[in-house]
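Work Package 3 committed the consortium to producing structural models of liganded targets before the mid-term review. Because experimental data for this complex are still outstanding, the team generated a predictive model from sequence and the ligand definition alone, so that downstream docking and mutagenesis planning could proceed in parallel. The input record is reproduced below exactly as it was submitted to the modelling pipeline, together with the SMILES string for adenosine-5'-triphosphate.
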Amino acid sequence: MTQRDAKSADTAVRVRGLVKRYGETKALDGVDLDVRQGTVLGVLGPNGAGKTTLVRILSTLIRPDAGTATVAGYDVLTQPRQLRRVIGLTGQYASVDESLSGRENLYMIGRLLDLSRRDARGRADELLERFSLTDAARKPAKEYSGGMRRRLDLAASMIGRPAVLYLDEPTTGLDPRTRNEVWEEVRNMVADGSTVLLTTQYMEEAEKLAHELTVIDRGRVIAGGRVEELKAKVGGRTLQVRPVDPGVLDAMAAALGRGAQAVADHAGGVLNVPILSDEQLTEVVAALGAQGFAIAGIDTHLPSLDEVFLAVTRGSGTQEREELAA
Ligand SMILES: Nc1ncnc2c1ncn2[C@@H]1O[C@H](COP(=O)(O)OP(=O)(O)OP(=O)(O)O)[C@@H](O)[C@H]1O
Ligand SMILES: [Mg+2]
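The resulting structure, written out as tokens with the ligand in place, is given here.
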């Protein structure tokens, strides 16, 4: 990920060697990452990985113990005021005022950001509309559902039209429909030119929204790259063959021989065959055809991000044990 150093012009967020300690805990232990302008970087990691710590440093809410970070060219340590003007933050812990209505919350933030009364009102109404909160605009936020509150929080982070948005687990605890709405809004923001740093524990979310991924665990980057690259790293594809007659699954597996490592999925009515090359793919399909099996469909898929995540975090654990043993 560091090869892009030379092209810093199109890098919206640039982090090098970031360290943050809390007593004995190294919340961040030398993190490097880049977010390209106009893209979404997904930062994936389990509980306690350091995601929120990273977002807090990049928002100038806390100071790192070592390392550097710039956002839109502004340094987190030396230019915090300029930096705050170009970012938006949706926290893991929503920051709306309970007693105020949705509209009042947005208006207040607009005023805090130096918008005129008129502009603050206009922007609040525009965002309420966009996040489907117009009907609830005059209700106090404490009467909002979790999903409405999250949408209000997202709207609040966008009032100042930030160039760079941090979304810290924006859909944790939301139902699937609300989660989809939030995803749609994030896509809209990116289409409007925002750069997004998204932390998440959901592989599906990262897969849906992120152009690139950084996987962190215990304060360290353990893997990174484009979604497809990460998947490819973990292993080959799986070929799924669906015979017209599900009764022949075992016969198909037998016909390919044990070396093919084919596994019959009787519930799904498919035969799963691990594939490492295009040649092998062609061979397997040809072999089944030659044996006279009637095939209703074939499909190939890369490993899921869950599998990628398990594989890379397992790897980092091993490395750590080796370091301890050394
Ligand atoms: N203010 C603090 N004081 C002490 N320790 C902290 C503090 N903030 C974070 N930590 C510790 O730093 C580590 C990283 O925490 P962080 O909140 O960044 O993780 P996270 O990836 O956001 O986790 P989650 O998915 O649970 O939100 C954890 O071990 C956490 O206990
Ligand atoms: Mg967190």
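Reviewers should note the following from the model. The domain at 2-232 is CATH 3.40.50.300 (Rossmann fold). These observations will guide the Year 2 experiments.
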